[in-house]
Amino acid sequence: MTASEFFCEEDYGFKYFVGGKITHQWIIDCLEKNDDDFMKHRSDSKIKKIDGIDISDGKGFLSKVFKTSIYFDDEKKAPYYVIVKIPGEESMKECMKKQNADDTLNLELDKISVFHNKECYFYNNVASKINDLKYPKCYGSKDLIVGKQAGALIMKFLGSDSVTVPFYRSLNIYQTKSVLDEAYKLQEYSLLNQDVLTKINLEQPFYEDIMKSFSDLARKGIPTLKKYILKGMWSEIENDLDNMISNYIKIMKHVYIELPKSNDNVTVMTHGDMWTNNFMFKVDSDGNCSNNLSAVFDWQTVFKGTTGHDISRILATCAPIDVRREIEKDYLPVFYERLKDSLTKNGKEMKISFENFMNNYKLCFVDQSLMMTFAIGFALQEYNVQEESDYIWDVRKFNIGIRIYYNIVDAIKICKELRPDWLQNNQ
């Protein structure tokens, strides 16, 4: 079908999408080729307009995310919705400016391209190979080639029947387990296909300058964090937390670089950013959020890590304290045994002991607990958080503070057990 047959306006296909330098023609070509639902919905209608609303706030850091509406010449026909994701510096700069940290983390476009192109690679070459993995359908992608080609992803719009859980609410135990099951699928696939995994180029995403930026952000996040934690509780963790932050770069290097390569360990595919804004759950018949996970998205930080990376991020950032501790005590042993049983049934050997499996989790949990010191600002920026006393937000902030306090308390215990040097001041 020619461009003039697709669009009401003959040259509309050559015009750029409102969100960036990709053409309307490219968007429609991708949907015509890869989205059967779009083809059925469009039928023989022509496209009148393609519009995009920026929904990046809290949902995009290195990219602009657009809820994209496609309108037809048949006005009785409802618009068709997809997500268009376009990488760039603007979203990150806006996000950092809101946190008064615009001088802390500045990634050039060539660094951003690594993240975007990795996500394209995952959707195109890896995702479909992992049995029953829940991820959004991808209808088209363009690598970001700096100075030559704008990057883009076109994905299924899930917002008609799925929602995210607000960061301030936390996931319940059933939702948490459903997300952990996606981490399990990644790990099971990796352990059953180590020969395939070695051929996939999925390097860890944090350059040394990013690690330095995270360390600076953790320092800058302390004044906000103190507002969420009661003074008496804060005094109990302040010195140890300060010492841990002084070792933050050392901790990140160990967790992301040294630990996956250590003896008696195994390498697994890791999402790298499993937190509430990257999950969507089906709504029930009343329109309320269910425990049924629709998809995990934002695969731009996927890398070859340890069994502890995704599990620790899910539990440190998404779960209330009692849920986290219950899962640590009762469910992680089950998680490990499931992996072991699957390997045995497939004639493979489980090459990591349960002790090392748990140590992976514990060491990664220290890193995730430190990340939470500055992540709350980013996680809450899409909400109208009241600075003054507020009937609802006072309790929400208290609950967030309690979660982070106990994360730090448990991280300190882990350091005393496994890495007491992380509690020594390194400044």
Automatic annotation (TrEMBL):
PANTHER family: AMINOGLYCOSIDE PHOSPHOTRANSFERASE DOMAIN-CONTAINING PROTEIN (PTHR23020:SF41), UNCHARACTERIZED NUCLEAR HORMONE RECEPTOR-RELATED (PTHR23020). Pfam families: DUF1679. Residues 153-345 form the CHK kinase-like domain. This is CHK domain-containing protein. It comes from Strongyloides venezuelensis. SUPFAM superfamilies: Protein kinase-like (PK-like). InterPro entries: CHK_kinase-like, Dhs-27, Kinase-like_dom_sf, Oxido-Kinase-like_Enzymes.
